[in-house]
Design brief:
The structure is a single chain. Helix content is 29%, strand content 24%. The protein is α+β, with helices and mostly antiparallel strands. The protein has an eight-stranded mixed sheet, sandwiched between helices.
Length: 588
C-alpha cells in the first residue's frame, strides 16, 4: 500500500512504529548533514527527519533532490521530537526516514501553498488545483461537505424526499436572464438552464410528494459580486398542506441544528421576526445586520423650518446614532462625507452632531440650529454624551439606502461586525409587487407564483401595488441566506397574477400552461424555501467571498480562467447547431 497512515494521524502513542506515509512536500530544511521535510496531505502535516550518519547513502541523496510539492512515499520509524511544536497536531513526533520513493516531481509552484499565500486571486484561480491544496480552502470544502450531510440527514429524518429535477428546461421569466442551450435535434430551438427548480417542486406537490428537497445547482446570467456566481448551489425545499408558520418553524429548526452541530452555538429562543416595512424603515434594507444596533430614525419634521435649505427641501431626513469610544476627528468625519458621496451611494453630503462628554452638542450646522434644537435631535435618536449623530437627507428611497451603507460602514469602523457573532432573523410580509415609478408597470418582487396574503386578496382588483405577500427571507449577519413564499395553488388567482404582470392569456398559456393544467387536477396548498448554500457556508467559514467555498468558481468577470471558459466554438460545431455569430455590436 502507498500509506499506512495519513499525515495528520500519528501521535506520541505511535512511538517506535514503522509507518509508510504519502503526500506533498510542504518545505525542506537542508542543514547539510541533517534534513527536515514537512510532508502534507489534506489530513495534516508530519515532520520527517534524516541524518547523513544514520540514513543510508542512496536514501539521503534522494531526500536532497526533493523540492516543494513533490509527491513522495516514505517509510520510517515514529520517534519523539526533541523540540515539540504545539501548533501542529503531530507536533510531538517526527518520522526518522528509512526509505523514500519520489512518486511525482513538481515544478516550482507559481505561488506559495500556504495559509496566507503570496499569489493574487487571479493567479491562484488560474492554478486552482494548487490553490485547493492550501489548508484554509481545504477546511472550507470540508465544512461545505459537513453542512451538506447535516442538511440531508436532518431533512430525511423529517420525512423529506430528495428528488432530482432537470437542468435542461424551458426558458421562463423569473427575474434574471437565462443561460440558454441550443438544441441540435430541434433546429432553432433552445433549452434554458434553471434559475431555480421552482415549477418542478410545485408540480411535485401536485403529484403528492408533500415534502421535497434537493441540494442543486441553479444558473442566472447576471452581474457578479462577492456573494454571487453564474452557477450557485441551493438547498431547495417545498412542503404541502402547510402555512407560513409551518415553513418558518421547520427551517428555523434546520438552521438551529446546523448552528449547534457545526459552530457549537445553541439558539434557545425563536428567531426574531420583523416585517419588510420595519426592516426598510429602521435599517434601510431588507437584510439587516442585527449584530449591532444603530437603527435609522426619521427626523424630517424635527429639522424643517430653520432656513437650512438642504433639509427644508428634502423629502426625507434620517439619522444614525453611533456610540464611539473616542471622539471622531474632523479628518475622520471628512472621510465619512467622502464615503456617502461615492457614486454607488449617491448622497450630496453629511451632517453630523457631536454629543460631548460635557453634555454640550455641537454640529456642522450650528448656524441654523439652536442648542435646544440639537438636544431634540439627541432625544429623538436616544443619544447620550460621547455619541456621534450622523444625518443624511434627500428622497426617501435613496436616503434610506445611503443610511444603510453608512450604518454598515460605521459597524465596520467600530468593530461591531464580529465574524464570530451571529444574528439570524426572519423578514416577513414583503410586497407582492414592485412598481416601475415611470411606467407604473408591476413586477413580481419574488416570482409570479407567490401568494398574496389572504386578507389582501380583494386589493388585487383595486390597489394591487399595496398587496402584501406571504413571502419571507431568513437573514444572517446582513446576508439573505434563504427565501421563499407560500405559493398560489388556485388556478383563478394564478391567472389574475399573470394578468396583473402584463401576460395575455395566450402568453401565460405558452409560458406556464403545464403548471396551470396541473392545477386542474387537485393542487394542495403548498409553500417552500431555498437556502443559498454557498452564502451560508461562506459566513460559517469567516470568508468574504463565496469563491472561497466553491471548488472551481468563476472570477469577477464570470470567467473560468483555469479552463479559459467561456470560449469560442469551432465553425463545425456552430453549423451542427444551425448557429452563426453575427458582427459584434458596439459596447454602450
Amino acid at each position: 500500500m502507498y500509506r499506512t497512515h495519513t499525515c495528520g494521524e500519528l501521535r506520541l502513542s505511535d512511538k517506535n512504529k514503522t509507518v509508510t506515509l504519502g503526500g506533498w512536500v510542504q518545505r525542506t530544511r537542508d542543514k547539510g548533514k541533517l534534513i527536515w521535510i514537512d510532508l502534507r496531505d489534506r489530513y495534516g502535516m508530519t515532520q520527517l527527519v534524516a541524518e547523513e550518519s544514520v540514513t543510508d547513502t542512496e536514501t539521503f541523496a534522494a531526500l536532497k533532490k526533493i523540492g516543494r510539492e513533490f509527491v513522495v512515499q516514505i517509510q520510517g520509524e515514529v520517534i519523539e521530537r526533541e523540540a515539540k511544536n504545539a501548533n501542529m497536531a503531530t507536533g510531538d513526533i517526527e518520522i526518522k526516514v528509512q526509505s523514500v520513493k519520489i512518486l511525482s516531481e513538481s515544478e516550482l509552484p507559481p505561488f506559495t501553498i500556504e495559509e496566507d499565500s503570496d499569489g493574487g486571486e487571479e493567479l491562484r484561480m488560474k492554478y486552482r488545483y494548487l490553490d485547493l491544496r492550501r489548508p484554509n480552502l481545504q477546511r472550507n470544502l470540508i465544512l461545505r461537505h459537513k453542512m451538506a450531510q447535516l442538511v440531508r440527514n436532518y431533512l430525511s429524518d423529517k420525512g423529506f424526499l430528495e428528488v432530482e429535477t432537470p437542468f435542461l428546461i424551458k426558458s421562463t421569466p423569473e427575474g434574471a436572464r437565462d443561460f440558454v442551450v441550443p438544441s441540435r435535434m430541434h433546429e432553432g430551438k433552445f433549452y434554458a438552464l434553471p434559475q431555480s427548480p421552482q415549477m418542478f417542486k410545485q408540480l411535485l406537490m401536485v403529484a403528492g410528494y408533500d415534502r421535497y428537497f434537493q441540494i442543486t445547482k441553479c444558473f442566472r446570467d447576471e452581474d457578479f459580486r462577492a456573494d454571487r456566481q453564474p452557477e450557485f448551489t441551493q438547498i431547495d425545499c417545498e412542503m404541502a398542506f402547510v402555512e407560513q408558520d409551518d415553513i418558518l418553524n421547520m427551517f428555523e429548526g434546520l438552521t438551529k441544528h446546523i448552528f449547534k452541530t457545526v459552530k457549537g452555538i445553541e439558539f434557545t429562543e425563536p428567531f426574531q421576526r420583523i416585517t419588510y416595512d420595519e426592516s426598510m424603515e429602521r435599517y434601510g434594507n431588507d437584510r439587516p445586520d442585527l449584530r449591532f444596533g444603530m437603527p435609522i430614525t426619521e427626523i424630517t419634521q424635527l429639522v424643517k423650518g430653520k432656513d437650512f435649505k438642504v433639509f427644508d427641501e428634502a423629502e426625507y431626513v434620517g439619522a444614525l446614532c453611533a456610540e464611539t469610544p473616542v471622539e471622531y476627528t474632523r479628518k475622520q468625519l471628512d472621510a465619512l462625507t467622502d464615503f456617502v458621496k461615492r457614486p454607488q451611494i449617491g448622497s450630496k453630503g453629511l451632517v453630523y452632531a457631536k454629543y460631548g462628554t460635557d453634555g454640550v452638542i455641537k454640529s456642522s450646522v450650528d448656524k441654523f440650529y439652536s442648542p435646544e434644537d440639537l438636544k431634540r435631535w439627541a432625544e429623538a435618536v436616544s443619544a447620550k454624551p460621547g455619541d456621534l449623530i450622523l444625518i443624511l437627507s434627500g428622497t426617501k428611497k435613496q436616503t434610506l439606502s445611503a443610511l444603510s451603507e453608512l450604518r454598515l460602514e460605521m459597524g465596520n469602523q467600530l468593530g461591531l461586525r464580529d465574524k464570530n457573532k451571529f444574528a439570524p432573523l426572519w423578514v416577513v410580509d414583503f410586497p407582492l409587487f414592485e412598481q416601475d415609478a415611470e411606467t407604473g408597470k408591476l413586477y413580481a418582487m419574488h416570482h409570479p407564483f407567490t401568494s398574496p396574503k389572504k386578507s389582501e386578496l380583494h386589493l388585487l382588483d383595486t390597489n394591487p401595488a399595496a398587496v402584501k405577500a406571504d413571502a419571507y427571507d431568513i437573514v444572517l449577519n446582513g446576508s439573505e441566506i434563504g427565501g421563499g413564499s407560500v405559493r398560489i395553488f388556485d388556478r383563478n388567482i394564478q391567472e389574475k397574477m399573470f394578468s396583473l404582470l402584463g401576460f395575455t392569456k395566450e402568453e401565460a398559456e405558452i409560458q406556464f400552461g403545464f403548471l396551470m393544467n396541473a392545477f386542474k387536477f387537485g393542487a394542495p396548498p403548498h409553500a417552500g424555501l431555498a437556502f443559498g448554500f454557498d452564502r451560508w457556508v461562506t459566513i460559517f467559514s469567516g470568508s468574504d467571498s463565496i469563491r472561497d467555498v466553491m471548488a472551481f468558481p468563476k472570477n469577477n468577470a464570470g470567467k473560468d480562467i483555469m479552463l479559459d471558459a467561456p470560449a469560442e466554438l469551432h465553425n463545425d460545431q456552430l453549423a451542427e447547431l444551425s448557429l452563426a455569430i453575427s458582427a459584434k455590436s458596439p459596447k454602450k
